[in-house]
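Go through this chain for my students:
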Amino acid sequence: MARVMRTTGALLATGALAIGTLTGCQLFVAKAPQRTPTAIEACATGHTWELDTEAFTPVAQASMKERGLGVTVAVSGSQRLTWDEEFRMTFDTDLTFTGTVDGSDPVITQTYTAKGTSTGLAYFSGTVAIPRDWNEDLAVRTETTQDGAPVDPAFTWVPLWIDDMVGLKTTCSAEQLQLEARQGHLVWTFNRVG
């Protein structure tokens, strides 16, 4: 019986020593592993980009011609893309597309304006950015004139803005970002501004 009590006493003393020792120690917490961004992620995200409307004008023109529309297109205004490190994209848009019907006499001009904000996420799969959870708050307006007088619309604008849910092929350099619709031939070129 004395032997059992000595063993029990030794175990209790060891337990008390262990508890006393642990209460003075800080528990170590493992840090979550850091994810290293891919080269395309590091280049494209964390920056602000401005649409190059001069470069986009011939792209818009070709897109209209591909659909059989004889229209000469001019693009003006601005579109700013902010793409943060959490993959959130924000487009601040104030663009005007002006189309003049080829060979019209008197001249028929149709303008399409888009103004507002579009937001969403775009995660990468290789070099393809896949848009998700997209929200648009854009005010759009179409106005057609013939020799300055209002007339009925002469044609329907093809989509000339980023709205590609199957992904955007992305190329990036320190100064320039290109997004290309995988379902069409539109390429948007943005210059880095921040």
The beta strands are 47-51, 71-83, 88-101, 108-125, 128-146, 149-150, 168-172, 176-181, 187-192. Residues 2-23 form the longest helix (22 residues). Residues 39-192 form one domain.
